[in-house]
Amino acid sequence: MSRFSEQDRERIRSQLIEAGQESFARFGFERTRISDLTAEAEIGTSTFYQFFDSKEELYVKVLLIERRRLEENIADAVKTGETPRDEVRLFLQTMLDEIQSNPLISALLVDGELRTLQDQLEQLEADGKFDGEQPGGPNLPFTERWAALETFRYDDRDLIEQLFISLVFTVRAQSAPVGAESGVEYEQVQGALIETVVDGLFVES
């Protein structure tokens, strides 16, 4: 029987998630040890398993939390757009900025960490550990509305989403040696790419 009260369990679980967010972002999944996580929560290593079945389960939980936060940030940004063009521009800018600044978002979208944990995901889903959430990339509800516009070049929502997802890999160009001595900052390249994509997605009415 657990020696923790329900309040203690909620506190420790939250501490483990916070420790996971920090450690996974700093060291990555492989280099993060359960003992590092439990030290932050001031519990024994074996006690970890009263809260999560494995390090993989905690990692998936952390990635899903980060995905939800990304979706909220994108939604907030898109709402400020005055036109569909502005919305798409803000969407792309926010998504690419998040990937650059947050290693966990990069792991989720660029490295496809959830796909590499497919076996664990299937078991966790079968055990009902997702609280109604489904694993995968971010939910993009705007694409259906954009696809319905007469001025939007494509009307296939799946195609649009795959196009956007493919753009996340451009962040790797930031560390590519090709053109490193050109004097052009990556931010300039990203801005030009976003404008090119936005221009290509809309047609004259």
Q: Secondary-structure blueprint of this entry?
A:
Elements: H1 6-31, H2 34-41, H3 55-79, H4 84-101, H5 103-109, H6 113-116, H7 118-126, H8 142-147, H9 157-167, H10 186-201
Helix pairs in contact: 1-2, 1-3, 3-4, 3-5, 4-5, 4-10
Description:
By secondary structure, this protein is mainly alpha-helical. It is built from 10 helices and no strands. The chain has 2 domains: 1-52, Orthogonal Bundle (Arc Repressor Mutant, subunit A), CATH 1.10.10.60; 64-201. It is 63% helix and 0% strand.
Provide the β-strand percentage band. under 5%
Q: Number of domains in the coordinates?
A: 2
Shape: elongated
**Content-based structural category:** mainly alpha
Rg, alpha carbons: 20 Å
Order of helices and strands: HHHHHHHHHH
Oligomeric grouping of the chains: single chain
Number of separate helices: 10
The total of beta strands comes to 0
Which parts are unreliable, with pLDDT below 50 for 5 consecutive residues or more?
Answer: none
Overall residue-averaged pLDDT value: 85
What is the percent of helical residues?
Answer: 55-70%
| Main sheet characteristics | none
Distance between the termini: 67 Å
